[in-house]
Structure formats: structure tokens, C-alpha cells
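Two records follow; treat each independently.
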Amino acid sequence: MRLLLNILWFVLGGWISGTLWLLAGVIFAITIIGLPWTPAAFRIAGFSYWPFGRMVVDRDPGATSFLLNILWLVLAGWWLALHHILLAVALAVTIIGIPFAWQHVKLAMLSLTPVGKAVMEV
């Protein structure tokens, strides 16, 4: 079931989200200022491609992660999370879209504070 949901997710738009996060990671890597967020962008890209059967956990709750997450939240995190929440609400209206809506909620939470998180297999 997880494989089927991941394939449907990928075909119906997950590839767009994952590719945009990969592009963001490359742009972060090119700039010196964006280097701290590069690994988080690549992690989110992998999660955006295949979210079913995975979960996000805290990995490093240190002071550096906290400061980077605060800066990220102010500059980009809130509108990325809002985007995912709006998609989740639209998908939750249909019964078929509920599993996809839940994945967008997980992506919204990850988009708010991506530094210091890890994606684990369930």
C-alpha cells in the first residue's frame, strides 16, 4: 500500500515539490549564506518525493539549530507551511485526498523548522 501511495503521490505532483526542494538546496549550496540550510533542503526533497512510510523526528535540538530555524521561519518557513496547509485543506475535502492531505501537513511542519530534523522509515 505504501508503494502505491508513494507512486500516486509522485505522479500527481510530488515530483514537482521534490524537484523544487532540490533546486533550492543547490541554490543554497551556491551561496555562502545558504550553506547551513542546504542539508535540510535535500532532506525535505527526499521526503517530498516519497513521503509515505516515513516520519520526521528531531535529531539535533541544539542552540545552532534553534537560531537557524528562527531565521528560516521568519524569512521563508511560514509561507511554505501556509502553502502546504492550503493544499492539505483542499485535499482533505475529498475522501481519497485525506492520505495526501496528511502528508502535506507533515511537510508543513517540516517546512516551518527544517534544521535539526531527520526523516526516518516507519
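The next record belongs to a different protein.
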Amino acid sequence: MIILPAVDMYEGKAVRLYKGDYDQMTVYDDRPVNTAMKFRDAGAQWIHLVDLQGARDGGTPNMGVAREILEKTGLRAEIGGGIRSMEVIKAYMDAGFSRVILGTAAVTDQELLKEAADLYGPGIAVGADIKDGFVAIKGWKEKSEYTLEDFCERMAALGVGTIICTDVSRDGAMKGTNRQMYKGLTARFSSVDFVASGGVSSIEDVKALRDMGMYGAIIGKAWYTGAIDLKEAIAAAAGTEPGTETGAAAADTEEE
């Protein structure tokens, strides 16, 4: 399993929301590239970027910041937030992003989603943000008609290979991730790589997600508040921390 530390961008700054509420925003870094460099130095291979302004209002107001992060860190990056046209998708892909995440557009414009998936294949992922049992759109401000299961079935049928699934009620709440929800998803949709987002707040969460076969986990507030050490999380996700079977084998090799 891969770990994707997150930078949520708003007005060019790295911020975090509490349960998706724009009125409960904390600014953590006036220059997000500095945070991204810390992720790289801790051993991250991927970074998860979200343009919160774009998610709410459309457009790409933080594209410059996102490109600076990509260029200066050399990390593989996925980005979401306000991506609702082929022009924007192409701009991000041309800039070197590994994955573009469609959220609102995956619900409201599935012709666009199919066109993008046909063109860019695994470079297109979908964000499923779950609020009160339904997929939320437009920066989590509105609920769609899709339940999580219905939406994932539809996405799998369209050939989407990666879904970033967020339990909005746990995002930024530091109360643990929704293990039951993710366990059900991995068991039901074997053709989809699921990334857990929202509430990943301990190494125990990371290990549980790894053991149930999740493709990835996004770590946000838990790192910003110091609750999770990123190096430790990356090792746990890979199964190389002391005490695991892989980790024990590695230790034996080193002793020899």
C-alpha cells in the first residue's frame, strides 16, 4: 500500500478543513512547497493535492502552487478539485501530474469522465466523497443521488481503475478512519484500486487498511498535528516496519 501525504490548497496556502467545512479552516503553511519538501524528505513517493477553491467554485486558482510543488519535489502527484473540463485535465497531465481526480464531474458529466478515461487510462481517478451515505459534490456542499455502492458500480462499469474514497464525517476529525466502509469496498469491487481518505489518524489505521488490501491511504491532519510520523506510516504501509513478517525478514537479512 502506498501513502499519499496531502496538501489542500486555498489562496495559495496549505490548509485543512474540519469535516469539509470551509468556515472551519486552519492554515498550516503559507508556502505549501515547503510542506511538500518535508514529505519528500520523509521518504514519500507520492503526494495528494487538492485545490479547495477549485472544488467549491470551479477553475484552477491554485494551479501555479501545484506546479511548483511538482517541479521542486519530483514526487509523483495526483490532483483534484474543480477539474470539470478536458482543457483542465490536459493542462494538468501536460504539466506532469501522474493522476487527475474527477469529483463533481464524475457525477454530473460522465461523458467527460469516459472521454478522459479513454484518453488517459490509469491517469484518471475518481473522488467519491461520502456524506450522510451519498456522494457529495461541489466541495462537499451538495449531495448527489448516488449511494457509495451505486456510484462505485457505475465507475467500475465505465472502466475507472482508481477511486479515492473519503468519509467526510471523519475528515480532519482525528477519530480514526472508516475501516468497515473500506473493508466492504475492497471485498466487493476487486477491479478497483481504492485509496482511503478521511480520518487516517494512527499507525493502527494504516496497518488495518494495508491488511484489508487497500491500494493507498491519504494522510492529512494527522501529520500536520504530529499524530503520525510519516516515515513510520510509509514503513507500515509497505509492511517493512519491525514486527511484521516482511520487516522481520529484512532484519534477518541485515544481521546476516
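Discussion point: The chain has a mean pLDDT of 89. How would you locate this feature using only the C-alpha cell line?
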